[in-house]
Amino acid sequence: MAQTDNSEEELVRFFDLVPDMACIASADGSLKRINKAWEDVLGFSKEELLAMPFLDLIHPDDRDKTMEEVKKQIDGGWTKGFINRYRCKDGSWRWLEWMATPAVDKAFLYAVARDITGRKQMEDSLRRTEEGLEAVTVAAQDAILMMDPQENICFWNPAAQRILGYRSEEVIGRNLHQLLAPEHFRKAFEATYPEFRRTGNGAAIGKTLELMAIRKDGAEIVIELSLSSVLREDGWHAVGILRDITARKQVEETNRRQLHELQVFYQGAIGREERILELKNEVAKLKKELGRS
Length: 293
Description:
Blueprint: H1 2-17, E1 21-26, E2 31-34, H2 36-42, H3 46-50, H4 63-74, E3 79-87, E4 93-102, E5 108-115, H5 117-139, E6 143-147, E7 153-156, H6 158-164, H7 168-171, H8 176-180, H9 183-199, E8 208-214, E9 220-232, E10 235-244, H10 246-292
């Protein structure tokens, strides 16, 4: 009897040393043994938890899939990475990730759950951020492109398709400069790219440049390109915001040409006025001389 008591005490101590939520549950859905982590995570006392079916703690939307997982264990299967939500005493919900296996006689289930609520909140926050960024890039009127360390296009927003003519699936994974840059620009890029790939710095980073780009139809357009760098797991990426300024440059050229024509006309008009004034002076001088004679 003393040996049994000692074994039971050792089992309790072992259970309580486990930082995750460890339990033994019966196949009928009741908790038979739990460790202190259950009280810490969910806020119920040990007595409260052992007195209720664990199904009462599970989020209504997760109950069916949980019971399917329990049935799989009763049939002799293992559970790894199963996720559901459990109710806390204060009414909030915690996300739990489970590992479980049945006993040899399949009358009991041995399970350990890790509280991953913080991870899920971070994932949800990241997802919302990504969705927000996607909405911004989709709505943007300027093309937004990203180039990976191998010089391949890895991001292409809808405005890039409208401006440059290529659909996203046509360009992802293709060399950006071979696809879009006129040949005479490529040597300058090849000379500076090793420094960018190593440090994320370069003469064009943080600046807005006027360049030429080649559309899918072969037409060259004038672009305004703002470049920045971002460090990701596989190295430095270049992010470009590209605006088609061809129409604006054409207007500017037309205005310059018209201004030049006006200046030429004005200079000619001034020259004619000066000549007319000279003729008037000469006529007046002749009249004066004739009057004397």
